[in-house]
Design goal:
disulfide bond; 9 helices; binds the ligand O=C1C=c2cc(C(=O)O)[nH]c2=CC1=O; mainly alpha; two-stranded antiparallel sheet; oxidoreductase; metal-binding; Di-copper_centre_dom_sf; transmembrane
Amino acid sequence: MQLERDMQNLLQDPSFALPYWNFAIGGNKCDICTDDLVGAKSNFEQNLLSPNSVFSRWQVVCEFVEDYQSLGTICNNTASSPIRRNPAGNIDRPMVQRLPEPEDVLLCLEVNLFDTPPFFSNSTESFRNTIEGYSEPSGQYNPTVRSLHNLAHLFLNGTGGQTHVSPNDPIFVLLHTFTDAVFEEWLKRHTTDFNQYPLEDAPIGHNRQYNMVPFWPPVTNIEMFVLAPDHLGYAYDVQWPSRALGSTEMITVAVIAALVLVAMIFMGATCALRRRSRKSEVLQPLLGESYPHYAEDKENTQSV
Ligand SMILES: O=C1C=c2cc(C(=O)O)[nH]c2=CC1=O
């Protein structure tokens, strides 16, 4: 939100809103990697951005993570190299050559618990770990899988796919606004019980009452475990995909539809038969063939 406000100030446009990148579109194309958006691929160098994009002139800062760790130095914001990006181009990892599928988002929204022990990247049936992308989209932990948020990062295959430098790629923000939109939708669809947020035992910075580092002013994790339109003053406009029916569901629907049709035919036929019999009852002569007619009656009386 601070970034959005900063950009509103820079642009002198209070209506500016951060967009999101719906990365759950499947396939191997980065739909926003065009020169009018976040930059197309260079025709000259496969890992770089097209010179027609403003972002081809952006430089990566804080690239030397080994130095920061081994020498204990702090990143001094020295620019070192251009942004690298080669979507779907990681030939060593075919699994990250495709974006998440729309269905993956739906499955992840169905995971009931926010988090489960050990509150880490190997948690299973945990919404937090599933949207993060260390589980099958349905929530089952699988160490070989990368999905959703993680898969979107790795798909970018370059600056945006390396944790310590990924914020240098402008896609970073759009990838995370969408991830936040999925979180928002999950909060909407599930009763939000604060107790599901780990009070302890999560990695440092991730417990319920811990501050979210490095945001300023300080804000705790639990303060953000709320519906954004009601408490934070923003909302997402997303068309969530609808769920395609599985084969068992399709058979169930077909059987129900067939039963309803048979019931309707039966009811229609019964009504028609009833109406017909009621009609013939109404038109029945008061004196049937078996009753003597008045004239005959009279004749009989006279002859006596
Ligand atoms: O920038 C990031 C890069 C990531 C790579 C993975 C992974 O699953 O290997 N996860 C990432 C998260 C990032 O934020």
